[in-house]
Each structure stands twice: as C-alpha cells, then as structure tokens.
Amino acid sequence: MSIALALAKAGAKPAGKRPYFLDQEVERVLAIAMAAVQELAVARERIDTLERLLQAKGVLAAGEIDAFAPTPEQAAERGLWMQEYIARVLRIVQQEGEAITAGTHGDLYSEDVAVELAADAPV
Amino acid sequence: MDGSGDTPITAAAPAYDGLPDSRVVGRHGMFPHTTHDDIARINFLAQLNRHLATQVAPFVKTAWETRAEPRVRAAEGRAPKDRHEVRKALLGDPMFATWSALRRMTMEQRQQTGRWVALREAETLAARAKSLTEGDPGLSLDPTLPIPRYVSAVDHHCMAGSYHTELIPGDVSAGANYDVGMFITTGGLLGRWSDGGGRAIVEWVKREKPDFKPRRILDIGATLGHNLLPIAAAFPDAEVIGLDVGAPMLRYGMARAKALGLTNVRFIQADASSLPMFEDGAFDWIQTTMFLHELSLTSMRAIFSESHRLLAPGGVVLHVEQPQYTPDMSLYEQAMRDWDAFYNNEPFWSTLHEIDLDARFIEAGFAANKLIHDKVSADARDIFPAAADDTVEDFGRKAAWRLVGAEK
Fold first, then answer.
1. Cβ separation of A22 and B124 shorter than 8 Å?
2. Is B44 on the interface with A (CB under 8 A)?
3. Residue span of the structural domain in which B176 resides
4. Whether the predicted pLDDT of B397 surpasses 80
5. Distance from CA of B40 to the nearest CA of A (A)
6. ipTM score of complex
7. Could you report the per-residue pLDDT of B147-161, keeping only the tens digit for each?
8. Mutation for B interface: A7, A9, A40, most B CBs within 10 A
9. Contact criterion met (CB < 8 Å) for A45 and B40
C-alpha cells in the first residue's frame, strides 16, 4: 500500500497557487526537461557505480571503457540504435515536417471528418 | 589555439572543493531506506542548487545592474524606492525569470524526491516509530489541537501537506521527508546530523554564558528535533522539550531521538502562542531555529509574550534567523532574499525581516538593556571540509544566521 501512496502522492501539489515565471507552456516543458535531466544524472551515477564495482572485482580494468573501440559490426549496431533513438526523440519534428506537404493533398482533422461521416443522406 | 584537443596540460587538475556526496548524512534508526537512485537524486539536486547559487544568480545581479535597474530609473526618473519595486522590475527580466523557474523546480523536485522515499515505506516507518516510542510519556500528542492558519494556508517551502497532515495512522512521513531532504537545500552545510543550527547555539551559550546551568529548555517549532538534540547532548542534566503543531514531525522526532540514544528529551504537540500546561518561569532557556519567519505577526507576538511568562529569572530566549533587512543591505539583496516569501510559500518571511524585533521583545515584557544580537554559523567541517571557508550566498539558505534574543 505504501508504494501506491508514494506513486499517488510523492508529486502532490503543495497548498498555495504556483507562480509561473515564464510562459506557462514553456515552464511546463522546462519542468519536464529538468526531471529528465535529474534522471539522467541518476542513471549516470548508477553506471559509474557499476564500473567501479566491476573494477574492484577485477572484471574491468581502469580506463578500459574509455579505451574501448567497437569493431565495425559493433559500431554498426550502435549506430543503428542511435539512429532509432534520435528518430524516437524527434518524432514530432518528423510529423510536423510531413504535415507541410500532407496539407496540400487534403489532410483533414478527424473532427471534420466526423461531421462529414455523420451526415445523413438527404431524404 | 585551435581547440583541436592537443593543448598540453601544464597544470594539475584543481582539487575538488564542491559538495560532498549525500551519503555523509548520518543514518540513524529512523532514517528511511534510500536506494542508489534516491541518493543520486539528492546529490543532483544539491549540486543543482549550488550551481544556481554560484553560476546563475550572479547573472541575475548583472541583469539587474545593466538592464532592469536602468529601466526603472528611465521609467520613474529615480532610483527604485523599495525591495518590492526591485522584485517587480526583476520579474520582467528573462534572467531572473529563468533563475526563478529553475529554483522553484528544484524545490518541487526536492519535495518529490523526499516524499518518494518517505511515502514508499510510510507504513514500515510508522511501525518503527511506534515500536520506539510506544508507552513513552516523553511523546505527548494532542489530536484536538487546531492547526494555526499560518501553517495551513499555504504549505511552507512547497512541502505538500506541511508539518501536520497525516496520510496513514501513526504517520511519520512528513518527518522522514524533512530529514532526508535537508541536505538538498543546504548542501551538507548543516553537518552530519543536519544539526548545525543547534550546535551553533550551544557553542554560543557555552561561550557567552559559561556558568549557565539550565534545568529545562524549550525548543519551539522543533520539527524533528534536529537542532534540539545537540542541546540535549550538551546539557545532559536538563530536560529538553521540543514543541510543534505537527504530529508526524513529533512522532518521527521522538523516535529519532531515541534511536540516537538521547534520554533527556520530550516532544509535545502544542501551539506555543498558549501553553497553559506550563507554569510561569518553567524554563531557563527558550529558543527557536529558523522558525520565526514561518509565523504570523499575531502569533509571533503571542509567542514572545508567552515566552516571557514561561522564562525563569536569569533565563534566556534565543532565536536563530536569517538577517533582518536593514538600511545597510542593498534593495537588490533584500528583493532576492524576499524570493522565498513570494515564490516558495514563506508568506511571513518578508514581514518578519523588516519589522523591529527589539520593539517586539520590549512589548512582550523584556528589558531594552537585556536584548541580545549576535551572529552564529554552522560548523560542517565533519562532512564538508571546504565549508569553513564557504562564502556562497544563496539568499536566505546559507547556514550563517543572526541570533536575536533576550535575557530575563
């Protein structure tokens, strides 16, 4: 039950109206970005711990990660992952780009199509 | 130099003098369990606060001097007249807006980080507190106590539910959240047990009143007792009482004190503006630490008056606070210090720091020639060696305070 409480309430709004210093839309996106930035730091610390533990256990030598050079096959796999990752992150840019030309061949709002499709045939 | 990266390194890398890892904070028997990720979140937020104070806030000053203040002068044909005009002018400056937005977010993220830790094991923590305090007359709660308006109106420093809200029976999560997050705002400057304020006041009393042998000490607004415990440790023959309106804080505080082995402390749920359960002259020492700014003018006057009644002849009242806004403090600094009042839910902060505290002591019955004014600061060298030379000003958050008080 405590975990449900944490999920529901950890981010609860404090009593008192929130001040905004930037345009509200901008500040909202910045707040989400800062939370993501925080979680990146969290992941980075965890990886650092992992590397140090592996070094301490003799699995990894100091500097081995920085000295690592992928083989061409490994580089290709990683390159592909990076392409996929960037495409995911910039999905909205892709869709806005496609919209530039989609509009010229009759791209419609579903809301408008709904009106069209709901129209009864004249009796 | 072409930036190609082959510039020879001629000097050794400078030694790190930044914040310590938050694992330096002491783990006692009530401290919530923190995962590697929780600790990393705390580290990040402490470093982010430090960055905002050292790297971004100076740009706000530059923006004020080069853009915002000239705009006020051009518009009004005169210098800004008070800190409120400075703050309103700053609101229109993009650098102040960016710094403010990020500062507000770090506070919200700090609360979320701490609440995640505290709520995730809320039931376990409540059970642990119960096992540590059950049947102990030292913990005295009053579920009928009305929560004062100055606590319930807005949640201080964005702490959802404030000091008093109970989410489950026997809740201590507000105390656990407070404890786990203190490092974030102060970056370790309060020391291993977050008790820098209490240790500073002990040092002052031992130095200024070497023969003082208090029998009973009252700490008002004690929250989890972090500033009360060093006093109890330094004066083991005294009975030390922590007072607060929030039951989750008191339960956590009593359990924390027991986990740390203190036996001469009590925690009582009460509103310090009226303490009929204590007779006149019941205390030799009454104090608060970073508490006055969370009150209202009416309650502060009542607390000063009640403190005078409760103090025994020869006793002392001591309040640790951030400095007052005096004419020698620039309007810019006053406006920056006011930030928490308006944007971090500290609504009495601005008023508290402009009023004549001496007059309030005298009004409460203290003699004008018995008032105390001094400076105290936390010693955090146990976990943060560079803290001794720390000069970073974070506008209301620095662990260097003014001591105001009175003898009776």
1. no
2. yes
3. 20-408
4. no
5. 5
6. 0.80
7. 999 999 999 999 999
8. A9
9. yes
Residue A123, pLDDT score: 66
pLDDT tier, B387 (very low <50, low <70, confident <90, very high otherwise) = low
Predicted model pTM: 0.89
In a domain, B260, yes or no: yes
Q: In 3-state terms, what secondary structure has residue A70?
A: coil
Question: Which of B119, B123, B159 is closest, CB to CB, to A10?
Answer: B119
Residue matched to tokens 């970005």: A33
Please answer yes or no on whether A2 and B122 come within 8 Å at the CB atom.
Answer: yes
Average pLDDT value for residue range B177-201: 91
B130 part of a folded domain: yes
pLDDT of A115 above 50: yes
CB contact under 8 A, B167 and A9: yes
A10 CB neighbours in chain B (<8 A) are 112, 115-116, 119-120
Contact A13 B124 (CB under 8 A): no
Contacts of B254 (CB under 8 A, 6+ apart): B129, B132, B133, B136, B138, B139, B225, B265, B266, B267
Is there a domain that residue B176 lies in? yes
Nearest to B259 by CA among B131, B122, B126, B116: B131
CATH classification of the domain holding B335: 3.40.50.150
Distances, alpha carbon B222 to alpha carbons A81, B104, B219, in Å: 54, 25, 6
Say how far apart CA B232 and CA B285 lie, in whole Å.
12
Q: Is B90 part of any domain?
A: yes
Q: How many domains does chain B have?
A: 1
- Over the stretch A43-54, which tens digit does the pLDDT of each residue have? 999 999 999 999
CB-CB neighbors (< 8 A) of A47 in chain B: none
* Subunit contact B119:A46, Cβ cutoff 8 A: no
Task: Quote the tokens at residue A26.
Answer: 């901008």
Question: In three state form, how does the secondary structure of chain B look?
Answer: CCCCCCCCCCCCCCCCCCCCCHHHCCCCCCCCCCCHHHHHHHHHHHHHHHHHHHHHHHHHHHHHHHHHHHHHHHHHCCCCCCHHHHHHHHHCCHHHHHHHHHHHHHHHHHHHHHHHHHHHCHHHHHHHHHHHHCCCCCEECCCCCCCCHHHHCCCHHHCCCCCCCCCCCCCCHHHHHHHHHHHHHHCCCCCCCCCHHHHHHHHHHHHHCCCCCCCEEEEECCCCCCCCHHHHHHCCCCEEEEEECCHHHHHHHHHHHHHCCCCCEEEEECCCCCCCCCCCCCEEEEEEECCHHHCCHHHHHHHHHHHHHHEEEEEEEEEEECCCCCCCCCHHHHHHHCHHHHHCCCCCHHHHCCCCHHHHHHHCCCCHHHEEEEEEECCCCCCCHHHHHCCCCCCCCCCEEEEEEEEC
Which of B21, B22, B34, B41 is the best substitution to test chain A (most A C-beta atoms within 10 A)?
B41
